Amino acid sequence: MLVRLGGANDQESKEFREKYLLNSGQLETMPPGINDLGALMEHCFEASAQKGYKRTVLIGSDVPQLSKERVNNAFEFLKSSDMIIGPDNDGGMYLLGYSHPLGLLKEGIVWGQGTDKEALVRRCLHRNVSYRLLPEEIDMDCSDDLSEWMALLSRNPQKMASQKRECPHTIGCIENIENRRDSAGI
In angstroms, rounded to a whole number, what is the distance separating the alpha carbons of residues 17 and 23? Predict the structure, then answer.
């Protein structure tokens, strides 16, 4: 397993490696100077393929509720599809996987405007690239998104229990925020 970390300084990289029990060969930082998100993602896929990896999955940081099972499924689905797309509720993506570099991301997609997934699916269809969509997830950009997610979970005790097992720190943090909001009458 190789983790590529973007935008982190040396101390942040060290803390990340220690937190996730990675040895120094399992964590690389992204090269400076790549300013377009599509070019950065394409660079990750190309670098992964050059290292001999058969399947690569990129995960966004704004979907803390993402389960290990969903990520494992993405890798499994890449055995029979060129690309895996995990759409979020804002029209973007929380996960993107390639079975091999496809060159689809470098140009022509305006990232972060709520049309990412749609543009990428059109590009896959136009270039005859096989893809599979994962279930949609909530993109957590602000505290209201966290509240919305917790409200959904509270209506499904089984899902709440599952998320507490999968993401205990995230759930605990959100519960603390919600409790503070309640006591402040917000």
Answer: 7
> Do residues 65 and 86 both lie within one domain?
yes
| Six token digits for residue 167 | 């993401």
Question: Cβ atoms within 10 A of the Cβ of 27, count?
Answer: 18
Token pair 């399947």 is found at 55
Local structure of 100: helix, strand or coil: coil
- pLDDT, tens digit, 9 for 90 and up, residues 99-149: 988 889 988 888 888 899 999 999 999 999 999 999 998 888 777 777 788
- Let me know: does 113 contact 38? Beta carbons within 8 Å: no
In a shared domain, residues 97 and 70: yes
Q: How distant, in Å, are the alpha carbons of 34, 75, 168 from that of 42?
A: 11, 17, 32
Q: DSSP state, 155?
A: T
Whether 120 and 149 map to the same domain: the answer is: no
Contact 153, 159 (CB under 8 A): yes
Two structure tokens written together for 38: 């599509």
Structure token digits, residue 76: 């499994």
Tokens describing residue 92: 């973007």
The verdict on 75 and 119 lying in the same domain is yes
Is the full-model pTM beyond 0.85? no
Compute CA 161 distance to the chain's CA centroid, rounded to the nearest angstrom.
22
